[in-house]
Design a protein that fits this description.
Elements (H helix, E strand, L loop, with lengths): L1 H26 L8 H12 L1 H19 L4 H22 L4 H30 L4 H46 L7
Length: about 180
């Protein structure tokens, strides 16, 4: 019985990873808008970090196969995995509600801008003799319009879609894993 539940969990993890990739590709033509943040939070709340965290690692790894390797890979592994961990922690500390999930979406998306700027600056400063502080400030200021749209859109998406997506995901989990809906 436990082996069957483990296999179901592995299959669910693969489906979650595939849906993250599909969501990323479906919205990539709209600048600064993505559904990956929302979906990682929804999957973490509904299925737990034992599904969302490995699915996130698979998602980023598939992204490398599609788009190649650059500095964004470091930022993606750190950010998306941290989002799953922070969502899991926030869900344990507070009931996962609209305010909690929106706050996590907004704060983590705002920190994504800082993280990507930091990683890009670290790589650039290792290659050349640039002033770290000045280059960081320059890159960050240049990205503010992107970060603002990205942060606001993720906040709005969390407000509109998090509750219905969690309800649907929890119903699917209960149907998939049986009455108790426990995941190994």
């Amino acid at each position: 019985m436990k082996a069957k539940r483990t296999l179901k969990t592995m299959a669910l993890t693969g489906l979650v990873a595939a849906s993250l990739t599909a969501a990323k590709l479906a919205l990539m033509f709209i600048p600064n808008i993505e559904a990956v943040t929302l979906l990682i939070m929804v999957y973490t709340v509904a299925f737990g970090h034992r599904v969302s965290l490995p699915a996130t690692v698979v998602f980023v790894s598939v992204e490398m196969l599609i788009f190649g390797i650059n500095t964004w890979v470091v930022s993606y592994y750190i950010h998306w995995c941290a989002l799953a961990v922070v969502t899991a922690a926030a869900s344990r500390l507070f009931k996962p509600n609209l305010i909690t999930l929106t706050a996590v979406a907004v704060i983590m998306t705002a920190l994504f801008g800082v993280l990507t700027t930091l990683v890009d600056t670290l790589f650039a400063s290792n290659i050349s003799q640039i002033d770290f502080g000045k280059y960081f400030a320059l890159l960050y200021v240049r990205g503010i319009p992107f970060y603002a749209v990205h942060t606001v859109s993720n906040g709005v998406m969390a407000v509109i879609f998090s509750a219905p997506l969690i309800r649907v995901s929890e119903r699917l989990k209960a149907a998939y894993f049986g009455g108790e809906g426990k995941i190994v």
